[in-house]
Amino acid sequence: MNLLLLLLLVALAGCARDQVAVHTGEPAAVQAAATPAAVAPAALAQPGPDPERVRLECIAGRRLICGRVLKIIPDGLVIDSGYTDLVRTPLIQSWTMPGTVAAHRDPAALERKEPGSPCFGLCLLTDVPKRPKVKVFDFVVLMGYPAGSFQYAAVPNVERTIRKFSAGLDTAVRLTIQARSSKP
């Protein structure tokens, strides 16, 4: 039994190595040219932000969007977020709740800079699920990934910049890369 355990540990240690030697019959110099260090300068020449880095930033900046839908626009939903009491067992069965649900904001609550913490204030949420249909003044609870900013006009000729979130991580990465590459 001890011998079997020892063999298993040796096999696992062999699998955990960074480099695996494969005999191909070619000289070692040709194999060294295919190492990641030789490929790295070509990867650095790519224009625009690194998608993997943007993805990690989106994951680290995710927020729980829990609030009331103020407006439905083609880009998504304008939400007054910060109704943290929506995150309770009978309500959390769906991402949307009717506007008749009793929900209140905690006036003393602050937004923390931790992944998954509740978002407070106005925000735009894109890439929301198609079903069930959401209506104005309904409540929503979804995890949102940062996707830039949005110019929101609550009344004509008065615009303000609000945060933009996406319910889908891939969409958030794509929108963030687009926003960063369009800046001079």
Strand order in the largest sheet: 1-2-5-7-6
Which value, in Å, is the CA radius of gyration?
24 Å
Number of DSSP strand runs: 7
Rounded to the nearest angstrom, the distance between the terminal CA atoms is: 65 Å
Summarize the structure.
With 184 residues, this protein is an alpha+beta fold. The protein has 5 helices and 7 strands; from the N terminus they run H-H-H-H-E-E-E-E-E-E-E-H.
For this entry, give a set of tags.
7 strands, disordered N terminus, globular, alpha+beta, 184 residues, five-stranded mixed beta barrel
Structural overview:
This protein is α+β, with helices and mostly antiparallel strands and about 180 residues long. Helix content is about 30%, strand content about 30%. Helix 4 (about 50-60) crosses helix 5. It has a domain at about 55-180. The termini are far apart. It has helices spanning about 1-15, 30-35, 35-45, 50-60, 170-180, and strands at about 65-75, 75-80, 95, 115-120, 120-125, 140-155, 160-165. Strands 1-2-5-7-6 form a 5-stranded mixed β-barrel.
